[in-house]
Structures are given as structure tokens and as C-alpha cells.
Specification:
The chain is an alpha+beta fold and 107 residues long. The chain has a single domain, classed as 2-Layer Sandwich (Alpha-Beta Plaits). The protein contains three helices and four strands, in the order βαββααβ. It has a four-stranded antiparallel sheet with strand order 2-3-1-4. The longest helix has 12 residues. The radius of gyration is 15 Å and the shape is globular. This is Stress responsive A/B Barrel Domain. It comes from Chitinophaga niabensis. InterPro entries: Dabb, Dimeric_a/b-barrel.
Length: 107
């Protein structure tokens, strides 16, 4: 089976500390809509796990993990109306976003 590279886009959201439960729900509902974007292969949203080792950073509020066939699929996602609407509707809920983009390697 031939190996094909994938494009991985990880977004760590740091929500504002004073959000109401309704605000957090609005974020969760908004970020969940991103899973509808057609170019996605993998879509996952989660909170930090309870693991506790010195190398684990649990300072973020939510982590979004997305995987695409290639960078072109990621670019479609970035400009997709669902993605743009999420940013417009929810960007007031976070104080910081940290993104890690990578391409898988063949081992």
C-alpha cells in the first residue's frame, strides 16, 4: 500500500477565564460546526486530558485536531464559509489561539 502524506492542523484555544456557561456552550457549538467542512479527513475537538507529566501542557481550554489530504484541502477549509462564520461568531470568546501545522512523514 503506497504511503501518502497528510496535512495536520492543530489549534489550541485559550478561552477567556470569565466566560459564562452559555458562552462556553456557544464556543463548543461553534467549533463543532467546523466538522461539516468537506475537505476534512479527521475532525476532533477536546479538552485537556487528566494526564499529568512535566512535559504535558494543559494550559489550553480546547484542542482542535484536523487532518486533510494535503495543504490544498487545508486551504479550502481556511476560506470555507463555515470556518469564517465560526471565527466571526466566536473570536470574542478566546484570548489566545496557538496553531501547529505539520505534514506527516513517511517512516
Amino acid at each position: 500500500m503506497p504511503y501518502t502524506r497528510k496535512f495536520v492542523h492543530v489549534v489550541n484555544f485559550y478561552l477567556k477565564p470569565d466566560l459564562s456557561a452559555a458562552d462556553v456552550r456557544a464556543f463548543e457549538e461553534g467549533v463543532s460546526t467546523l466538522g461539516k467542512i468537506e475537505s476534512l479527513l479527521v475532525f476532533n475537538v477536546g479538552k485537556p486530558a487528566n494526564t499529568d507529566r512535566p512535559v504535558i501542557d494543559r494550559s489550553y481550554s480546547y484542542c482542535l485536531l484536523t487532518v486533510f489530504n494535503d495543504e490544498a484541502g487545508h486551504d479550502v477549509y481556511q476560506e470555507h464559509p463555515v470556518h469564517l462564520k465560526f471565527i466571526e461568531n466566536c473570536n470574542h470568546l478566546w484570548e489566545k489561539v496557538v496553531i501547529f501545522d505539520s505534514e506527516t512523514i513517511q517512516l
